[in-house]
User: Fold this.
Amino acid sequence: MSREKSTIAAVLEVKYKISITPHYIRMVLTGAEVPQFSNTTPGVNNKILIPPPGVKDICFPEWDPVSGRWTEQPEAVRPWIRTFTHRGIDTARREMYIDFAVHGDHSPASAWALHAQPGDKLGVMMRDGLTELYPRADNYLLIGDATAIPVLGVILEDLPPAAKVVAVLEVPGPEDEQSFKTVARADIRWVYNPHPQEGSRLSETVHGLSLPFDAGDTRFGYVAAEYTTVKTIRNYLRHELRWQRAELFAYAYWKAGTSEDGSFMERHLENAEA
Assistant:
């Protein structure tokens, strides 16, 4: 397979999976090519390639250096391509960890995670190179729905002990709360919403927050959820609370009523700054 020089691609296999909560599955993937990803940052996006029914192998898109574009494979073997966040990598054990928010068989990724068995194959593609997931600050505001828990979990577990954090996380119900191994001074507030396609409670919750941030300290916010929710929260923080552009990352991970079209290198994170 020809590919863009800066892209790592590998076929990994399911080693085993863990049911973290009723709506969250951690897939433990393995393969000889896992060490290729050692020069990447946990929490940064990757593309997963899910084979269609009846197809065992992963047919990667081809990189055309002349046009500078990815060429998709024939429809019969073309995998579903979705954007995910890898939760972590253990190169010594040759393991990669990817968490799936599951909601039945209504989407290819959820259905694959629910039914995957040891030995099943998954394609993973990711840009090579380390990157800064978030800037350093004294105070953090982390806001996200179920799709954002992997990246926000990585941030929480990476923050130093001196960091003060308020995290607002929306999940279907109390049984979906997760534990994070963080040493930061974290105040994690869970919001329950069993029907995220019908709207989110994140915006109203954020509007009601009283942030315990000290005057003069630096601050940073990371918001990731459904498009309309992210846009509303971003506007509130930027225009009503006067957060500066550099103090906030705001990303739409999905949009109600639509699905990711599978084009490989299209940017899935729709930056609400746009």
Observations:
- The chain has a mean pLDDT of 89.
- The domain at 139-273 is CATH 3.40.50.80 (Rossmann fold).
